[in-house]
Structures are given as C-alpha cells and as structure tokens.
Design brief:
about 150 residues, about 0% strand
C-alpha cells in the first residue's frame, strides 16, 4: 500500500465506522423498539427512518466530527474517550431528542409512551458504539482488525 493509499484509508475510516456502527445501532432500535415493543405503524417507514436515513446520516456526521476533532489531535485512551463522548452527545442526546420530538407525531418507536427508555437506550447504544469505534481506530489491535477487514 502506498503512502497516499494509507492516507486515504485513514481519512475514510471514521466515516465508514460511523456509518457501520450507527446503522447497526439503528437496526437494534428498529427491531427492539419498532418491531417488538411498539409494532404498530408502517414497518417500511420505520426502517427508512431509523436504519437508512438516521443510520447513514448521523453515522456520516459522527465520522466527520471524529475526523475533524479527534484524528491528529488525540491518541490512545484520550481519543477513545473523545469518540465515546462525541457519540453520546451527538447521537445519544441531540439526535435522540430530535427523534423523540418526531416520534411524538408518528408514534413509531414508543418515545411518548416511555421517553426515558427511548433516550436512555439511545445513549447506551451511542456510548458502546463510540467506545468500540474509538478502540478500533486508536489502538494497535483495533487498527490491525480494520486492516484485516479492509477498512
């Protein structure tokens, strides 16, 4: 791999990981809240909202923010903590509050019925995803995993 290829890969990593982890967390939310706990409503629209639009949009957003604020500025544990905090603030709190407001109109994911569970679940998933993404990007073992899978 050339130096340019390595630089391009390093630039893409946070965005790819942001989208992968965000879409995975949104898939969990879709299945748990959208299908099991609150099955009423159009399944296709729920999937589009949660997994496609929110998952890709917010995943790309958090990836870009990690690229801007963490990469090149922090390393190791500090970078992992920064990724976790960014994920919690942006995805777990800001995005969830927006989705809670939207859900009050659509009633797809139980935000009105149990807002604490709605917000709390999002914060937990955001923290876990942010910490894992940070570990993958900012530890030697994590980077080896990413190299092995081609990210």
């Amino acid at each position: 791999m050339t130096n340019v290829d390595a630089q391009v890969r390093a630039l893409k990593r946070p965005v790819i990981l942001g989208i992968v982890f965000s879409m995975t967390a949104e898939l969990v939310i879709f299945i748990l809240w959208g299908l099991i706990l609150f099955p009423a409503g159009n399944i296709f629209y729920k999937f589009l909202w949660a997994v496609v639009f929110c998952g890709t949009g917010m995943g790309a957003t958090i990836g870009a923010m990690i690229q801007l604020f963490v990469i090149g500025n922090l390393n190791g544990l500090k970078a992992i903590v920064a990724c976790t905090l960014l994920s919690v603030v942006v995805l777990g709190i800001a995005c969830n509050l927006l989705c809670l407001n939207l859900d009050s109109h659509f009633h797809y994911f139980g935000g009105i019925e149990d807002p604490y569970f709605f917000i709390g679940g999002g914060i937990v998933l955001a923290a876990l995803s942010g910490a894992l993404a940070g570990w993958l990007m900012f530890t030697a073992k994590g980077m080896k995993v990413l190299d092995r899978v081609g990210i």
